[in-house]
Design brief:
MetI-like fold; mainly alpha; flat; two-stranded antiparallel ribbon
Length: 313
């Protein structure tokens, strides 16, 4: 009886099959681990964005099941809405002032704390403490501080011989008052991130610069800023995103007043959706806000992103 030859085994393909099985197992494990977060994002982020994008072309009233397609009518109405343009201007002013000022102050504080001052831990905790205060609580505290009759800020101004101001009741000062409070609230957050980046800068670079007679300002410009540019880029992006999400301070402190001087896009969305019960217009504003933020992030990426210096590259 003839003996059959054993089947040929591809020895070289065996490790590849093992590697593919391992990769599939890793992908399956990663998918299971990420599933709760993905479901949460899909339900509370991506699906509302899609619905908002669609509702911008419909006449939708809060609590009503009737939906009517109106095309670009919501956007055309916003084009002629003075309050929409004022809220957009207020939002842009808030971003233009708050982001550079907060980051600049945070950088100065981080550089000062990075010098190894005595009591650095205490200073770091003190500057970061406003970040830990809930936004609503911080807003209520600053309403008391800005109070025209008994507020400590006006009391200090009177003691210095300066005229008292109705901070949150004067259209000229209401938005600057909120901007100042926001800088106080978030400068410490940016400072902590920048301070962590400064810890990674090689110290011998500063020693060599000092031996060459380079001043502290030039060290900051030519050594510190380029080496922490990735972190600065990250902080700028976070600051821009935060500036267009401002709502809680306006809601607690001014309700968009006086005379809509502090009305921003997010608060105007809230007004249209829950006060005027016009979901279609609110969705159109939200879509415009999303496009504006996306365009700003693209501009930041094309300008600052190209100037980022990564170590080892």
């Amino acid at each position: 009886m003839p003996v059959k030859n054993p089947p040929m085994v591809d020895v070289d393909s065996a490790p590849e099959r093992v590697l593919k099985r391992r990769q599939r197992r890793e992908w399956l494990t990663a998918l299971v681990m990420l599933a709760p977060s993905l479901v949460f994002l899909a339900a509370f982020t991506y699906w509302p964005i899609l619905r908002s994008a669609a509702y911008g072309f419909f006449d939708v009233q809060l609590g009503s099941a009737d939906i009517y397609f109106v095309g670009w009518e919501n956007y055309q109405r916003l084009w002629h809405d003075e309050l929409f343009w004022q809220s957009l201007r207020n939002t842009v002013v808030y971003m233009v002032v708050t982001v550079p000022t907060s980051i600049g102050l945070a950088l100065l504080l981080a550089v000062a704390l990075d010098r190894g001052l005595r009591g650095t831990a205490l200073y770091r905790s003190t500057f970061f403490y406003p970040v830990m205060i809930p936004s609503v609580a911080a807003g209520m505290v600053w309403v008391f501080l800005y109070a025209p009759g008994y507020g400590p800020i006006n009391a200090l101004m009177a003691w210095l011989g300066l005229p008292k101001l109705e901070w949150l009741y004067d259209p000229r000062w209401a938005l600057p008052a909120i901007i100042f409070m926001s800088i106080w609230k978030y400068a410490g957050y940016f400072m902590l991130i920048l301070l962590a980046a400064l810890q990674l800068v090689p110290r011998d670079l500063y020693e060599a610069a000092r031996l060459d007679g380079v001043s502290g300002f030039r060290q900051l410009v030519h050594i510190t800023v380029p080496l922490i540019s990735p972190t600065l880029y990250f902080v700028v992006v976070i600051g821009v995103l935060h500036s267009y999400q401002i709502f809680d301070y306006v809601f607690v402190m001014t309700q968009g007043g006086p005379a809509d001087a502090t009305n921003v896009l997010t608060f105007y969305i809230y007004q249209n959706a829950f006060q005027f019960q016009d979901i279609g217009t609110a969705s159109a504003i939200a879509n415009i806000l999303l496009l504006v933020v996306g365009a700003l992030i693209a501009v930041v990426a094309l300008t600052l992103g190209r100037r980022v210096h990564y170590l080892g590259r």
